[in-house]
UniProtKB/TrEMBL annotation:
Any single Pfam family the record assigns to this protein: SulA
Gene coding for it: sulA
SUPFAM superfamilies: P-loop containing nucleoside triphosphate hydrolases
InterPro entries referenced in this protein's UniProt entry, alphabetically: Cell_div_suppressor_SulA (IPR004596), P-loop_NTPase (IPR027417)
The name this protein goes by in its record: SOS-induced cell division inhibitor SulA
Length: 157
C-alpha cells in the first residue's frame, strides 16, 4: 500500500529565519515617538571573570570618562584593590581629572557615592557597590539628579 506523498514544509536556514523576523521599527516611527525629556542618570555594568580581564574591559571606558572636556571630576569610589595608581597610569587615564575615594568607618560606599553625586563636583561617579538593591539605586538616581551628574555602578562577579 502506498500513501500519497505530502511534501514537508521547507526548513529555513538560520539566516533565512532571522531575515523572516520583523525588522526593527522604521526610522520614521522612531523619530515620531516621544523622547524622554529627562536623561538617564544611572547605569550599571556587570562584569564576570578574572579581575585583570575585567579591568582591561573597563580601561577604555574609564579613559574616555577621564578625558572629558569638563571642569568636573571623574570620581571612583570603592574600586577593587587591583585598580591602583599605577594601573590608572598604565591604562592611559588622565589622573589629573580623577578622584579615587575609599569608604571608611564613618561612611559606607553608598553614602560616599551619594554625597559625591549630590555635591555636583563630578561629571561621573563610578562606584563598585554589590549588591545594589532598588532602594539604594533610587538614592543614587536622586543624588545624581541633584548634582547634575552621572552614576555608574560596576558589579564584578
Amino acid at each position: 500500500m502506498q500513501f500519497p506523498h505530502t511534501p514537508l514544509p521547507a526548513q529555513l536556514t538560520l539566516f533565512e529565519a532571522f531575515m523572516a523576523q520583523p525588522m526593527a521599527p522604521a526610522i520614521k516611527d522612531v523619530l515620531d515617538s516621544p523622547w524622554s525629556a529627562e536623561p538617564e542618570v544611572f547605569s550599571e555594568l556587570s562584569l564576570r571573570g578574572a579581575a585583570g580581564n575585567c579591568l582591561n574591559l573597563l580601561a577604555p571606558m574609564l579613559r574616555e570618562l577621564s578625558e572629558q572636556q569638563n571642569a568636573r571630576w571623574l570620581t571612583l569610589i570603592a574600586p577593587p584593590a587591583s585598580l591602583t595608581q599605577s594601573w590608572l597610569r598604565d591604562a592611559g587615564l588622565n589622573r589629573e581629572r580623577i578622584l579615587l575615594l575609599q569608604p571608611n568607618g564613618n561612611k559606607s560606599a553608598l553614602q560616599l557615592t551619594c554625597e559625591a553625586l549630590r555635591l555636583g563636583r563630578s561629571h561621573t561617579v563610578v562606584s563598585w557597590i554589590n549588591p545594589l538593591n532598588s532602594a539604594a539605586r533610587q538614592q543614587l538616581i536622586s543624588a545624581a539628579r541633584t548634582g547634575h551628574g552621572q552614576s555608574l555602578n560596576i558589579r564584578l562577579g
